Records
---
Amino acid sequence: MITLIVAVGKNNELGKENDLVWHLPNDFKRFKKLTTGHHIIMGRKTFESFPKPLPNRVHVVITRNEKYKREGTIIVHSMKEALQIAKNDTQPFIIGGGEIYSLGIPIADKIELTRVHGSFDADTFFPEIQINEWELIKEEHHDIDEHHKYAYTYLTYLRKNIN
């Protein structure tokens, strides 16, 4: 089950200058809970936005740079290679960025989406989901609180069986 995991703003904003444009501690906790013990597939820029590799996950980094090497990662040069590396994982996660999500949407079985209820100045966007291809199976809304400047909703989608 290939899963995209993503947090986006109202207009599918992902981030700006290789960073998130909001801070949602509960979403970080959810990301950790869902991805721990799995392969996380990402682009080089997404990996470089982390202060260090995330614990208890296999980092698969897609880059065009044939000479790129980073400790704590498996470097590949295509989504096909990334999925081959993760083939024994029951649920590898595609975690971004924008180009990697575009490669992942056609092959994904599931989307774990956090919709942040706000509009943001961004330079990277999540591709538009063809909603007729997906079934919303879970929705969980969270209001603004002392730790969360924005309301947000967790949305879980499964790909419909299209014949």
---
Amino acid sequence: MRYQKHSTAIVSDEAVIGEGTRIWAFVNIQSNVKIGANCNICDCSFIERGASLGNGVTIKNGVSVFEGVTLEDDVFVGPNVTFVNDRYPRSHNANWKLEAVVVRKGASLGANATILCGVEIGEYAVVGAGSVVTKNVPSYAIVAGNPARQIGKASREGTPHA
């Protein structure tokens, strides 16, 4: 095994996981998942079939990454971030339509943010804690609120700048 896995983690043999990735306690990774090298998947996270994570991604505690969600290289996902992949969810809906979410390279998502389906978050963007993202976020933007609105611009390191 080229990655570390806690004894309580469930990892499908059909998942592709890169070298140096660390998978912590009570994580569930389904089949047909791609996880890059040197990622950190923290306690109580769930990665659903069809999700894709690039290299160097950090998933903090309690995050579910559902089918149709793509996290590019070096994305940071704070604790309890929620991804949505179904605009009109109903129990037992055989006709539901998956709507993808893409989080571009280097973006950071603050704790408890909610990312609605059909949204793209640009490179090195910052989503504030507790924000509800309902539309695309430009690269290097800082967004916050419900619904999230741009409140500034971020440097490549994530700090605000003019």
---
Amino acid sequence: MKTFIFDFDGTIVDTFDSTITILHSISKYTSHNISKEYIKKEIRTKHIKEIIKDFNINSAQMLLIMWRIRSELKKEREDMNSITSMKEVLNELHKKGYNLILVTSNIESTVAHFLDKENICVFSEIYYKSGLFNKNKIINKIIKKNNLNKKEVYYVGDEIRDILCAKKSNINSVSVTWGFNSKELLKEENPDYIIDSPQKLLEIH
């Protein structure tokens, strides 16, 4: 059975501008007081590991930044919107009998509230608070638990780390261009599929 494993932020829900605002707010209290425009450019055109290195962010600081982002997004969950036509495409994939699974680094209450608000009830399993760079471990667990054929598993995400994750788990990578990383950056990692609209998910065979 064909299985689609979805990332959440930037892939299903539009949290890009909110995340930029939060990061800009954080930067005001550091030695890197930078503009929103600069932050947008960094996120769109660089791998997150490059950004961490460029700004000399240690592990403790990274955990604090992630906690702050999750906490602030929780406050804004009423205003979160799904990517245009994503809800309809998810429902269509579900009607076709495909298995849909969600893996996210966001917190359960935020994700659950959004899915309830949008009336999205298509995911057979949801995994919360995954790390930035270890989603492949969760995906491997999903594959083993459900006895999935890797050739029929597609990981849908909006960042380079999602492509690398799919490659580590030896499954198909589907990169979406409406999220955090630019289309040009995504292309550099040669995903199996790169799509410009949710409807293109329906054409994947």
---
Amino acid sequence: MSSVPAPQRPASLSASIPGFDPRQVPIIGTDAHLPAVAATQLTPQALRARFASPPHWVPEVRREEQFMDRTPAHAAVLVSLVLREELTVLLTQRTEHLSTHSGQVAFPGGRQDPGDKDAAATALREAQEEVGLDAQHVEVLGSLPVYETGSSFLVTPVVALVQPNAPLHANPYEVADMFEVPLRFLLNPAHHQRHRLHWQGRDREWFSMPFSDAGQERYIWGATAGMLRNFYCFMSA
């Protein structure tokens, strides 16, 4: 955030375990047996209709195993669906020097401020602060269920359509890079890898969705992947 000297982000699992690298945790399975979301459902019109009249569905991931003892705090992220010929999802690569979630792939977003009217207001404000996305280029469709991170942040994913010509300017303190991933890739469970780690007497499980971007691996995992998995469940219900 350009106006805040230190990021208001929760500590991550990778910061809690010395030498932890999520890429080294074994894959215990993928979900290639599940159907991908049909291309006909991944249009702006179909998405508007789905959020206007949502089906009965159950999110698969609601709460991560806790690794911090703290009072829960509300936050929101913006799941930005860019209106290209094929819809894409805007993601960021966080800078390496940050004390929390350094180097990780994330949605633009962060902690709710007292002046924020609702989760959508938080997500839009944070997106403007992090990547320069102005709300005039955004059409909010709705929200997915609250996702509780292992560090006790109650995150509301706000899903929105974003104009492809929206000017973007990354805040260099927080954002090392911005990139887009096709929505069809992220909503295809064949790309959803399951991981399990036994730590401090508990099994901790999460999804990853590695994506090759012009030869560069974008390692999407943890909370970001969990929220995308719930998006898949919502769209496939």
